């Protein structure tokens, strides 16, 4: 991990709602309902469920999630018209190791 990426991740995590989203995604089974067509959370949580739980507007949550994805904190998977996000545990570990 380099300093530039660590700084970008720090910026992403400088907002309480974005940190809360990361916390929710740490245990998706506990924090979200899964779409009927998917049996598990292997591909993450539907963006709509994240938006609904956050209580934020579509544009705000879209900006937050896009920025979190761009810096690598979240991994996007699409199923048809639906987008699913999950935490990038590898990058999170690299980030925490870098901070140590």
Q: What fraction of residues sit in β-strands? A: 5-15%
Q: Do you know the CATH topology?
A: Arc Repressor Mutant, subunit A
Instruction: Please provide the count of β strands.
Output: 3
What is the makeup of the main sheet?
3 strands, antiparallel
Overall CATH architecture: Orthogonal Bundle
Low-confidence stretches: none
**Spatial strand sequence of the major β-sheet:** 1-3-2
Q: State the name of the first-level CATH class.
A: Mainly Alpha
Write down the overall geometry. Answer: globular
How many domain regions? Answer: 1
Order of helices and strands: HHHEHHEEH
Q: Could you give the distance between the termini?
A: 12 Å
Supply Rg. Answer: 13 Å
Q: Helical segment tally?
A: 6
Could you characterize what this model shows?
The protein has 100 residues and is an alpha+beta fold. It is 57% helix and 14% strand. It is built from 6 helices and 3 strands; from the N terminus they run H-H-H-E-H-H-E-E-H. It has a 3-stranded antiparallel sheet. A hairpin with a 2-residue loop joins strand 2 (74-79) and strand 3. It is globular.
């Amino acid at each position: 991990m380099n300093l530039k990426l660590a700084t970008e991740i720090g910026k992403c995590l400088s907002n309480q709602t974005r940190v809360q989203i990361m916390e929710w995604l740490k245990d998706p089974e506990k924090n979200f309902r899964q779409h009927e067509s998917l049996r598990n959370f292997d591909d993450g949580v539907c963006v709509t469920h994240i938006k609904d739980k956050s209580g934020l507007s579509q544009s705000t949550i879209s900006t937050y999630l896009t920025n979190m994805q761009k810096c690598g904190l979240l991994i996007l998977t699409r199923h048809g018209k639906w987008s699913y996000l999950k935490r990038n545990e590898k990058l999170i570990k690299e980030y925490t190791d870098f901070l140590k």
